[in-house]
């Protein structure tokens, strides 16, 4: 899994399904079209 954070609100989501696509997507939390920046990769990470 690769987690990315919303540049606007900091929400983290797994965008591994979007590998190779532009990182500009709508944020489900702040509802802004934002740039997602990579945070970390991991297997079985829990918060």
TrEMBL record:
Name the record gives this protein: Rubredoxin-like domain-containing protein
Protein species of origin: Haloarcula vallismortis ATCC 29715
Lineage, highest ranks first: Archaea, Methanobacteriati, Methanobacteriota, Stenosarchaea group, Halobacteria
């Amino acid at each position: 899994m690769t987690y990315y954070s919303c540049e606007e609100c900091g929400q983290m989501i797994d965008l591994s399904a979007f590998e190779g696509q532009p990182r500009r997507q709508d944020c489900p939390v702040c509802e802004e079209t934002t740039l997602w920046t990579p945070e970390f990769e991991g297997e079985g990470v829990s918060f």
